[in-house]
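Researcher: Let's continue the batch. This sequence belongs to LytTR family two component transcriptional regulator, and it's 266 residues. Same format as the previous ones, please.
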Amino acid sequence: MPGQSSHSRAARLRTLIVDHDHATRAQLERLLCRHQEVELVAACATARAAAEAMKRRRPDLVFLDPGRPEEGGLKVFDVLRGRRWPAVVLMAAAGAPLPGAEEVHEVDRLVKPCDRVALQAVLARVVSRLAAGGRPAGTSPPDRFSGGGRVAGPPPLGRLPIEGAGRIQFLDLAAIDYIRAEGKYARIHVGSRTHLVRGTLTLLQERLDPRTFLRVHRSLIVRLDRIREVEILRHGELRLFLSTGDSLISGRTYRDQLRLSLGLPT
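Model: Same format as before. Here are the structure tokens for LytTR family two component transcriptional regulator:
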């Protein structure tokens, strides 16, 4: 693609854009070309062109708007049966559904229209996950995100180990309401009880399913099914009322992703 340099070419993520909208493709292409960790190999408007690019260019990362089910956006991955699967960032307008997300190696989501800050945050998370375990190497489509859907790296948590008094207890993730950062530790809120675990919120986020747990503030992760009501505040933040009776305020940086996850317009 034009504008790409040869600097660290071997270390770059070979990246493919798939979106029927020309303006979205052009905007994303301009933004991605600013990132040295990305080598943009193709930008496609149709499933047929994307499938050919997948087969010929072997991307590491795909930005994909799957469109409506009848549009067949996910069919671009049919050419990969028995081959290495790329990591996938699914794209959609705020509030739009993402059909068939469980069928691909989804590692993140991006709200359209995308902007520089949101894309930079997504790329940072993707690069971090890939760096932790190398390139995605699955040779078949995943059944669920919590299984084959993640790229190689630290395995997703099934239970959270809680250390204390010389013993380790294992907490079911379904019991967690939200998690708050406390320096190099994270405080796990479970009803009226809390547990302090070693590790930053970012490291913990890497091990949690983003369909269940969402970062809503630099110091907060919340379990989405605990949110019962939302109040829209003046400067773009949201006040989240949980089923536990707690209320949390989201950060503006996380607004669009939170709205997308809750099915709200931006």
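Researcher: Any comment?
Model: The chain is about 20% helix and 30% strand.
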